[in-house]
From TrEMBL:
DUF2007 domain sequence ranges: 1-64
Protein name: DUF2007 domain-containing protein
A matching Pfam family: DUF2007
Amino acid sequence: MEELLRTTDITLIPLVRSLLQEEGIDSFELDVNMSILEGSIGILPRRLMVRSGDLNRARVVLFENGVSLDR
């Protein structure tokens, strides 16, 4: 698994997961529990992981949909 995205924006991860799912790319969200423990005030980022073989394709999907990975 490779990290595709790390963000404190809780609206971005569902968007990205939806875009990836439409393309048949599986993803897995990490650090959800830590984010909840800190009270969901946005201090701790969540990470979205994809399979190593899907990383480049996932980046292209996000680029084509205007999602910046520089967050």
